[in-house]
Amino acid sequence: MEEQGETRKIQFTGKSSYIVSLPKQWIKELGLKQGDQIRMIRKGSSTLELYPPKFESRVQKKEDATIEIAEEEQPDSIVRKLISLYFLGFKIINLKSKSGRLNPIQRNTAKEAVKRMLMGSEIISDSSNGMTIQVMVNLLELSVDGAFKRMIHLAKSMLNDALLAVKENNLDLAQEVINTDDEVDRFGFYIIRQLKIAIQNEHILKEMGFRNARNCLGYRLVVKNIERTGDHAAFIAKDLLEFKKSIKKEILEKLQEMNDFSLTVLDESCLALFKEDYYQAEKTIKKIEQITKFEKKIKDASKSIKGDEEMYRVRRLAENIRRISEYASDIAEIVLNMNIEKTLTKTE
To answer: How far apart are CA 97 and CA 70, in angstroms?
Structure first.
């Protein structure tokens, strides 16, 4: 919803009160009527905020949530429930056992999920019959843009390190790349949580720097593309752990060129997102078409390969890298959709 503005005079009534009228259209759109109460908050020396009671009660419901875990409940089910409640913006998440006691696997699963996936969360109470998790992170302490930039940096580093691991046949570095994928997901989950909170509160929406709730959906789709970028870096690392040997130097050089290009267009599409630049996104989409040139170089260099195994690995590595450029294109398309209105000709 776009920000609206009205100018109204302050009037004096009785002996100690001032009143300001509200536009009738606003009252209708908010579903209010005569006699409803409005909560007023003074912020600083220059801002007054009004909150309808319906909104206040909706926000208060997000404080605390309790889920009961059945004795036979599987670990992946517990993780999904924790992530869902984290996304919904609850500050306190209680896990309780229906049978009176969580088994060791269930407890360890919840602890690992909090540690690896839920940014800003801490276990403040832990016993055999339940667990309490508190989300302590401040809404504006780490901005969406700040978290997103960190997420991109991690995903790009994963790709570079994955190829370096293949080049050096470094199994330890490959494992480190795979472990870093959890960190990328943590930032992704945090951003999604913030976006879900923002679309329910116009004030927070503006504080986070979004023009409207529609842009939150755009960012949600972008986050998914960055998560997938990290996944493909992990796939490259897993290839090395599976075969435990490098590939030919001349082919690796071509793969590195393709990777550098893919990361460049990913950078450019994300820059267009931050700048809200429709035309930069359009240029990036056009540039991404050049990926076929790098694919041809790899295909030509692969003609010298004799074994089926190495040919299979090269094709799989090239496919993982090509997907990065596709995600860059998807992000640029999202930027176009978010900023198309800027290109429209204004009519009187």
So the answer is: 6
